[in-house]
Design goal:
mainly alpha; 2 domains; 8 helices; 65% helix
């Protein structure tokens, strides 16, 4: 086989391998796209319970559409996923729970209820699990304060440890420096030992 033929076969092989690789990657991406639109948590379609209140007299909406969307970020979808109802209903179109809860929010807003009252209504229906964050009252304060307290306690303990370590290091350095200075040994001698040493030196002289 000539060099030209070998070069032609090599180019054919590279082109074929590149095409096969591109097709494999495209197929892998396509297979992932549907999964990205769904939650992987087991779905509890029967978890929805109506949260209804009679409209207030002369009801006027207290929330704008944007404020309503912000509120929905604070209400957890009960389908079994970890998302709030706004995120769930706008990303997972297989869920029927979040759209139903959204309709309840819409009715409550139209009924003249404000954000605090709507949250309280969902807590009354589902319990505290209806909220993406627990209310800051009673025992729930522990969940907010405990991490900060633990960090502050750790910082204080670390500061005290470092200060003690620095003080001990300085003391040890001072002792070493004093031991290496001329006359340090005599300073550590008692008066009787110093007197005997002086007598011995005079006798030798």
């Amino acid at each position: 086989m000539s060099g030209a033929e070998r070069g032609s076969d090599r180019r054919t092989f590279l082109v074929t391998a590149t095409a096969v690789g591109a097709a494999f990657v495209a197929r892998a991406v396509q297979s992932q796209e549907p999964a990205a639109q769904q939650n992987f948590a087991p779905m509890e379609e029967g978890a929805y319970r109506p949260t209804l209140r009679a409209a207030k007299p002369d009801a006027t909406p207290q929330l704008s559409d944007d404020e309503r969307d912000v509120l929905e970020h604070r209400i957890k979808c009960q389908c079994g996923c970890p998302l709030d109802i706004y995120t769930c209903r706008t990303t997972d179109f297989t869920c029927s729970v979040s759209p139903a809860m959204h309709r309840d929010v819409m009715r409550l807003v139209a009924g003249g209820y404000d954000a605090k009252e709507i949250l309280a209504a969902f807590v009354e229906t589902y319990g505290e699990v209806a909220l993406t964050e627990p209310t800051k009252q009673g025992f729930n304060w522990a969940g907010y304060l405990a991490p900060g307290i633990a960090m502050a306690t750790g910082a204080i303990a670390l500061t005290l440890f470092v200060r003690k370590w620095v003080a001990d290091s300085r003391t040890a350095a001072a002792v070493r420096a004093g031991a290496s200075m001329p006359g340090a040994a005599s300073d550590a001698m008692s008066d009787d030992d110093r007197a005997r040493l002086e007598r011995a030196l005079r006798e030798d002289a």
